[in-house]
Design goal:
- The protein is α+β, with helices and mostly antiparallel strands.
- It has one domain (7-152): 2-Layer Sandwich (Alpha-D-Glucose-1,6-Bisphosphate, Chain A, domain 4).
- It contains three helices and seven strands, in the order βααββββββα.
- Strands 1-7-6-5-4-3-2 form a seven-stranded antiparallel beta sheet, with helices on one face.
- α1 (22-30) crosses α2.
- The longest helix has 18 residues, at 135-152.
- It is globular, with a radius of gyration of 16 Å.
Length: 153
Amino acid sequence: MTIERRLAHSGFTLTRDYPAAVARVWDAFADEQQKLSWWGAGDAMEPGEWAFDFRVGGRDIAEGTFHDGPVSRYEATYTDIVEHVRIVTTYDMWLDGVHMSTSVASLEFEPAGAGTRFTHAEHGVFFDQFWDGGKGREEGTRGLLDALGTYLG
């Protein structure tokens, strides 16, 4: 089988207002135990390899197997961290061992009254058979932000 070599670019921005102080929302990303409590939470996936190294140049890995099929692998490198202000990562995704995409994501934390306005902006490059532009990427990120909202209460 020949794979058609092509690229697709996709970007999106999601904003959420959480009823928690910036430090609390920040800690949900910066503290490993807190991140484990909500990142990929749910019953749709059996967790696999996990690594957490929250520092500029540090790498995170989150791998899991969906109960109905494929193995998803996320590998991120932190490129910029300003405490309580922003986190910037580059990350790669694989599906069943096939390199799916490379993305740059920025996470911004701003006070909004007694809570936090959180903004996730992302631009991805999707490879070959994933050239549909990663239609599920924005949906998956929405799910993560919903899980974060549930975690924050």
